[in-house]
Amino acid sequence: MDEFIIMPNHVHGIVIIKCHLPVGANGRSPLQMKPKSISSFMSGFKSSITKIVNQIRNTPGYPVWQRNYYEHVIRNEDDLNRVRQYIIDNPMKWLEDENNPANRGERSFAPTK
User: How many domains does the chain have?
Assistant: First the structure.
């Protein structure tokens, strides 16, 4: 991991892959992921965190993540620095974010039963 931030409803992070083979999204459904792909990495990450969150909340099977994710291949130092700065600045944008529950009149992200 490089720069990362955990926000109330999403996460941003730079994952560094040290590999000499082509690696990237494969556009396949989760049941057809290639091992060691970005897709399989994200699937494993989301699955692990979901289990932990649902154990803490006592909400087995409750969804935690949106279905998809956004990826961007960083190809040079300027792009790396731009993405790092975006991640660093992201918390300052949360107060105005349309997905912030406070801006929608909601109190929290806690699931309702």
Answer: 1
Residue 70: inside a domain, yes or no? yes
Q: Residue 44 has which token pair?
A: 């494993």
Q: What is the distance between the alpha carbons of residues 15 and 17, in angstroms, rounded to a whole number? A: 6
pLDDT at 113 over 50: no
**Residue 113 located in a structural domain:** no
In which element (H, E) is residue 56 found? Answer: helix 38-57
Q: What is the pTM of this model?
A: 0.66
Phi-psi region of 103 (alpha: psi -120 to 50; beta: other; left: phi over 0): alpha
pLDDT digits (tens, 9 = 90+) for 60-78: 999 888 788 888 989 999 9
Phi, psi dihedral angles at 25 (to 5 degrees): -65, 145
User: Residue 91 sits in which domain range?
Assistant: 4-104
